[in-house]
Amino acid sequence: MYSSEITKASNFVQGVDTAFLVIMGISFLFLIGLTVVMLVFIFKYNKKKNPKATQIEGSTKLEIVWTVVPFLLTMLMFYYGWAGWKPMQRAPKDAMEITAYGRMWNFSFEYENGRRTDTLFLPKDQPIKLNLMAMDVLHSLYIPAFRVKQDMVPGKKDNFMWFEPQKVGTYELYCAEYCGLQHSYMYTYVEVMEDSAFQTWIADTTNVAASAAEIDSPAATGKRIMQNIGCFACHTLDGTRLVGPSFKGIWGAEHTVETGRETRQVTVDEEYIRKSIYEPNADVVEGFNKGLMLSYEGQLSDDDIDNIIEYLKTLN
């Protein structure tokens, strides 16, 4: 069940909403004012009432008024926008740091203890600093209820956003920058909980994940890993074509691949899968584009890949 009461869900809500209301108010003031003046002029100076054009002399006083007043209103809008934006640029020193990864087409979040999730879990009333990492193309992390949005620029240093969640609940998190075919499916959720509940979660889920990995079969673990890193956004399980080759029946199959300028036949085995994960552009299946997948080296261990291989074997 999602939180229906999103007012002041974070410390930036009031500043952003105030700026929005001020700008909207001034915009509507001009819209209504100009519309009324236009209608009055149409009625007062139509051809029947004013058949002969009248020369109207300019007014220096009027020129000054409609120059100064809009300028002051523009400065007022700028002030509220700046006042809402400036605090977002400096995170508190005691903020909890979480690394947010964006890649085509999913988000994942890494906590200070190494735990990774595809949902962002946060403690209430504690400043959070999200270090933003784009793994391929430009993305934009947007949490509407918190009134925060920041572009995730590949290779950009010190790319972050910060905020303080102030209401327990579940909130939506989107990619707000068109990033390719499955952009509209690149979303997840933010789960805000009481600090005590979060501390229990962050401690327990690490142990639960470890025990689950021991209990689950390697294939089930491999499937869970692939779900978490977004493999199924580009590869289907039913044989249909998407961004990359389908996983259905892939194990042991013969594929024609392009290796540099050479076209050759390869068999999908452990060596091929491992190389495709660590060097995805080395052997590109014929008919698919190069450069759409980036390496997972450093993000997946050899054990992770072993589990993925076991899962792929079950798809035959």
Provide a compact summary of the structure.
Belongs to the cytochrome c oxidase subunit 2 family. With about 325 residues, this protein is of the alpha+beta class.
Protein architecture, described:
It is a single chain. By secondary structure, this protein is an alpha+beta fold. Among the domains are: 96-214, Cupredoxins -  blue copper proteins (Immunoglobulin-like, Sandwich); 218-313, Cytochrome Bc1 Complex, Chain D, domain 2 (Orthogonal Bundle). Helices cover 35% and strands 22% of the residues. It contains six helices and 13 strands. The strands form three sheets. It has a five-stranded mixed sheet with strand order 3-2-1-5-8, with no helix packed on it. The chain has a five-stranded mixed sheet with strand order 4-10-9-6-7, with helices on one face. Strands 12-11-13 form a three-stranded antiparallel sheet, with no helix packed on it. Helix 4 (218-228) crosses helix 6. Mean pLDDT is 86; it is low at 1-6 and 208-214. GO terms for molecular function: copper ion binding; cytochrome-c oxidase activity; heme binding; oxidoreductase activity. It is found in: Cell membrane; Membrane. Residues 1-92 form the Cytochrome oxidase subunit II transmembrane region profile domain. Residues 217-316 form the Cytochrome c domain.
Which keywords apply here?
316 residues, Cytochrome Bc1 Complex, Chain D, domain 2, 5-stranded mixed β-sheet, 13 strands, metal-binding, transmembrane helix, Cytochrome c oxidase subunit 2
What portion of the residues fall into strands of 2 or more residues?
15-25%
State the order of secondary-structure elements, H for helix, E for strand.
Answer: HHEEEEEEEEEEHHEEHEH
Helix percent band: 25-40%
Distinct helical segment count: 6
Report the radius of gyration as a whole number of Å. Answer: 28 Å
Q: Name the CATH homologous superfamily of the domain at 96-214.
A: Cupredoxins -  blue copper proteins
Q: Low-confidence segments, ≥5 residues, pLDDT <50? A: 1-6, 208-214
| CATH topology category name of the domain at 96-214 | Immunoglobulin-like
Structural class: alpha+beta
Sketch the major β-sheet: 5 strands, mixed
Question: What is the overall shape?
Answer: elongated
How would you write the strand order of the largest sheet? 3-2-1-5-8
